[in-house]
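Predict fold of Glycosyltransferase family 4 protein; 670 aa.
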Amino acid sequence: MLIIAIGCAIAAAFGYAVANHLQHTSVRKVAGGPELTLPGVRAILHVPSWRWSVLFLVAGAVLHTLSLTMAPLVVVQPIGVLTLVVTAVLAKVRPTAGVLAGMVLTVGGVIAFVGLSSSATASGARPDLVVAQWVPVVAVVLAVVGRRAGARARCVLLAGAGALFFGFTSALVRALAQGQLGGLLPVVAVEIVAAALAGSWLVHQAHAGGSSAVVVATTTILDPVAAILIGVFAYGEASSSFLVTATLPAAAAIAGLVVLARAVPDPGPATGRVQREGPWRVVVAADTYPPDINGASHFAHRLASGLAARGHDVHVLCPSTTSQDRTEVADGVIVHRIGALRTPFHPTFRVCAPWRAARSVSSLLKEIQPDLVHSQAHFVIGRRAVRAATAAAVPVVSTNHFMPENLLGYGPLPRWSHRLFARLAWWDLTRVLMHAAAVTAPTPRAVQLLEENGLNRPATPISCGIDRAHFATAPASAGGDPTILFVGRLDAEKNVHELLRAAAALPADIRVELVGDGSERDRLEELVTRLGITDRVTFRGFVTDDELVRAYQSCTVFCMPGTAELQSLATMEAMAAGRPVVAADAMALPHLVHPGHNGWLYQPGDVAGLTRALGDVMCDSAVREAMGRASAQLIAAHDIQRTLGRFEELYRDVLAATSRPVARDDLVAS
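Predicted 3D structure, encoded as tokens:
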């Protein structure tokens, strides 16, 4: 009988997995936000996939009940964790290392747990249902707290409350099967129905506000835990020492569930939104935005203002330059600045407190009601925007500008920890990107990096784009000393010290201009003094836009020695100005610099190689002019209007895939 009971429990797990998958799809079709409303309940009754989910749910319940009549709770309930494994298969998730590890841990833990529980069971005494009543009490508390929680916590808490009700239902069914209830039968029957309905309602609400992986993982952990604890303490089906013995396999199963829950992809935003052909209301979520000076900030501004110029209603969520919130309109874009604080790691970068960002971002998205959210980062505002948009059934496009190396120079981490930090940073990034309907990066190399570091879904390379006309308008200055120009942050990963050492070995009439500021400026100024080239190097700091254009137009050659460039907007600006480029042969720079055609590449750290490359360009005006013309031609493929057009196409595809109305095709007339 025990073998039959285990077989029924396994079959029930399959039924529950299919039912959960269909329910999640159905709820997301009709839910207009993170809550399933009464109109949504009426609509879901007519969705065929939901009707099929009921059939699978009933089949699973019947099989589960049969297993409970033949075996104790501590044997039957742990098998329910297989539901998440089946969910991973139904979601057609790629068998990555994380998925396989999660399955091995889950299945292995379940097998060991069942083996221990089947040998530790005892014939229980008359069920003490009073002891079991703590479970629905805890479930109610979780439900109340969940209603007031943020998006992701709400999903977990509501799913947890539903799981406790289901575990309580299983325990009551087991007591009913034993026939030891006496005069309590009517009460228990009512409790079974009430707990089942409450659990179903709460799990549906969790499906409306979060991913199926989170819902299934939460229910498959808490449902058996609740039932097993009732079996041990209320039914006497095993001694309390069993809990100690079973800790290791239980921990393995739970660890497997956590790994799988992170690996199973989010099925995407709700599809009950009405699609518009355009113009669209777009929210650009950025953790850096002008007046910040960096590539990600400039791109976020170009994207927002460019979309606004094309007729879209564009809102930007970004950190404020003070500790106060404020809203302003600039370049046709409504900019919502959230109060932020200075960081000790960078002189200009400001960051929002996570709790303040969570509250402000959710409130702003509710007020703005966007068609789509385009996240530019995964730190604070970008992360909160992805979570809030996903919970509100708003499709998300995420563009990655981040590399761990961009942060390593700002903290006190010892060098030996950098590799571990980088791995953790990539893991955190890909975990956030998995919630987006579409992921982009500026170059094919940037996309390759995401794939190499754990992103197990497609990503699209879309250039950050450049306003070519803006940088090509000013005429080149005639005469003057030959000048090497660098534009960017004076931070560790930019390797400006290599340029300065190379300049010291070049003829004395060659000057160097450094536009920008950063944490390495003091060290670089000391290096210039030691090298004896203070009269040849100018630290210009931050400059106006007009001054930047003139700097590009008046320089002889542009140099980019950085090794953490996912695209390098400064290099693109120099190319738009028709300048030859000498750059490090690292990351995405080879996409822009073609050796011998529009400049030269050198191996990072090879100062002698950099010196030769700069000298070759500086000493031959004919080569220099030919390379400048080639730069202008190559950069045409990165024109900002082309970039805006590609993002509009992506938005249209995402909205078409996630914003289909539910009526007609999906609904059956009642």
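Confidence is low (pLDDT under 50) at residues 267-272, 660-670.
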